[in-house]
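Purpose: get a first structural picture of the assembly so the mutagenesis plan has something to point at.
Setup: two entries, given in the order below. No constraints added.
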Amino acid sequence: MDQVSFLTQVIAPAFASGLVMTLALIAVAAPFGFLLGCAVSVGRAYGSAPVRLLSRGFVIFFKGCPLLLLLFILYFGMPSVGVTLSPFVAAVIGFICCNAAYNSEYIRGAIHAIKDGQMTAAEALGMSKWQAVRWIILPQALRKAFPGITNEFIYLIKYSSLAYMITIIELTGAAKIIATKYFEYNETFLCVGIVYLALVTITTVAAHLIEKKYAVPVGQSAAGATA
Amino acid sequence: MTDNSCILRIENLCKSFGNTKVLCGISFTVNKGETKAFIGPSGTGKSTLLRCINQITVPDSGSVFLDGEEVTRSGTRINYFRQKMGMVFQNFNLFDHLTVQKNVEIALLKVRGMTPAEAKEKALFELRRVGLEDKADCYPAELSGGQAQRVSIARALAMDPDVMLFDEPTSALDPELTREVLEVIRMLARQGMTMLIVTHEMRFALSVANEVIFMENGTIAERGTPGDILNNPGYDRMKKFIGKIEEYR
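Result (structure tokens, whole complex):
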């Protein structure tokens, strides 16, 4: 088989279905990872003592647990306690928890960077703590945390390949199968690398556009008044 | 003024931070339409007093009554009382991610539950009142300090408060910008707004307030009407303090 037909007849169709799976994993994991990250960071910054403890424990556990190990526990370990998860569900749960743990740290840092006066002013207007967090604190914190959240999304694109270890044939899995079958490691993995590079590049460009769209003028007179 | 026009009553307010007693039994009443100015050295609890009134800082003991209803220990109803007590801060504390108009609208929408059209109309009305309707689409970072403070006054006024609390509204401003903010406050006084103002602008305090309260070490040391203070003997500590401040003007 020549190079061109290898690319068009073998790699392209296999990669297409692998890519669909990779995108499906990301499409489910990223939004929930983001939302859970918001919840955990808000819990840590504003929650009652038990909520703070719980959120902190969540972050310590999922930051400390290697993702691959987590996927093994979810997929191979859970049936022994009576919970059988499909590979897709197990992978997505693992990704969400990992993504949320890191995102929550970026957002928590951003929340702490917001001046106390913002919360005070919101409460002085009669907002509840929750309303102030939702309408005043989070919109500002997410702008500050956005580069970190983008990074975490890019990590997610790449670590989604770990799903292969629990039998999901996503992009890397599809490549591995072809490489082994045709003994064409260089071409296959070069191609898969290009696809990941494309995904990350698209993400980076999109993130830049989003950041620009929601950018707010900062600095000088008003914002910089005495502390 | 008669007793039934009393809008705000402070009874024996006490607050400590650690071992430092900041407020030691402050009591006074405020009648509708009255302006009270609080002056005194830094660290004597003037700002803490204002913050204890709307419970942004929770006092250790004592009570605050707004229009006869107890504000202290009011649980979640505190959010209702806070709407009725507009607060203006030294650092303006405008919401940095919102335009001027949205700064004024946000609490109308989320707290008062107005429709967007109603909130917009109200916001533009209040911005007109402080002379900043043309800045509606600016962000806080694009304003001068004086403009920012006028927006924050508009934001507080939009909630139709019974009382306005000003916490050193001009301390972060240069003299020129201070002037434009004081003009707005003076206008509110003329329109009959009830106001408590913590300030270091002595001339302003003496010209706009119905009563000047001199605080020292967490207590009300001396109090009197500007006419009394300026024309009568006594008020030695207050006069000495005012003299010290005005010396460098």
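The CA atoms of residues 21 and 170 of chain A lie 5 Å apart.
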